[in-house]
Amino acid sequence: MVIHDVILASAEGPSAAYAAKQAAVYAMDAIEGHPDFITRTCDCRAKTQAKKANKKALKQMLASLQDQSEDQQPVTKASEVENGNEDGMVIEKSDTKDSRDCSPT
């Protein structure tokens, strides 16, 4: 019986099922003799809680960044850019096709 890379108990028997049952009994005896074994050895719960806290903090930071970027950058419509309403830039459209000759020579 292994718990977090610590060999707690082992057993042998006429069958695998019997050996597993004996190992479990020995492991329970070992744990009863040292009730703080699991709290000293197992940090699964602390790791899980820390991971959740980090994930929550990351979500909050991303939401904060998104809120800041939405507040700072005005939304510009494509039609405003085409009509020259943003930063004085004018984009001219031409209805004629490209005048370059693309015929094979």
Word description of this protein:
The protein is mostly helical and 105 residues long. Among the domains are: 42 residues, no CATH class; 30 residues. The chain is 54% helix and 4% strand. Strands 1-2 form a two-stranded antiparallel ribbon. Strand 1 and strand 2 form a beta hairpin. The longest helix is centred in the middle third of the chain and has 29 residues. It is rod-shaped and about 75 Å long. The relative contact order is 0.07. The mean pLDDT is 78.
Task: Briefly characterize the structure.
This protein is 54% helix and 4% strand.
Show the helix and strand layout.
Layout: E1 2-3, E2 6-7, H1 16-33, H2 37-41, H3 44-72, H4 78-82
Antiparallel strand pairs: 1-2
Radius of gyration from the alpha-carbon trace, in angstroms: 35 Å
The oligomeric state of the chains shown is single chain
Counting helices, strands and paired strands, the structural category is mainly alpha
How many β strands by DSSP?
Answer: 2
Distance between the termini: 82 Å
Low-pLDDT segments? none
Question: What's the order of the H and E elements?
Answer: EEHHHH
Query: Helicity level, as a percent range?
Result: 40-55%
Tally the helices: what do you get?
A: 4
Mean pLDDT: 78
Overall form: rod-shaped
Beta percentage is under 5%
Strands in their spatial order, largest beta sheet: 1-2
Main beta sheet: 2 strands, antiparallel
Defining key terms:
105 residues; mainly alpha; two-stranded antiparallel sheet
